[in-house]
Amino acid sequence: MTADLSLIRSSFAVVQPHGTEVTAYFYDHLFAHNPGVRPLFAPHIDEQRDRLWAALGALVANLENADTLIGMLQNLGRRHVGYGALPEYYPAVGSSLIATLAHFAGDAWTPEIEKAWVEIYGVISSTMIAAGETAGETAGA
């Protein structure tokens, strides 16, 4: 992993006090820019916002624990296939995540922080997509 993990942790610490406002903004951004993904979610997504917030915190907390992190991401990837998530949705999610983090980090957001998040999101999404594809192959067999 090439992402600067200290930048991931420090920037998340800046965003963290905003709590689930972060995930509310994320979903608003995602649905406004990618309305085609809205049907994948329940009409009321308060519980989903809480789950996303918990997952983000767990991911950041486990950045140095590769086995735990990979296991979490693989589980998420397998579950997301069941929700109808397709690999082509991941870039939209990443774009909304970066926009959300930048919004809440404000002046603390830098090009270096954005680069670190883009890199870590690449690892997150590729791991989830691979696990989802494996789950799909197993289910179809």
Automatic annotation (TrEMBL):
The UniProt entry, under InterPro entries, shows: Globin, Globin-like_sf, Globin/Proto
The record's section on PROSITE patterns has: GLOBIN
Per the database record, which ranges form the Globin domain? 1-133
- SUPFAM superfamilies recorded: Globin-like
**Keywords, A to Z?**
Heme, Iron, Metal-binding, Oxygen transport, Transport
Read off the CDD domains from this record.
Answer: HGbI-like
- Family as reported in the entry's similarity comment: Belongs to the globin family.
Specify the protein name. Answer: Globin
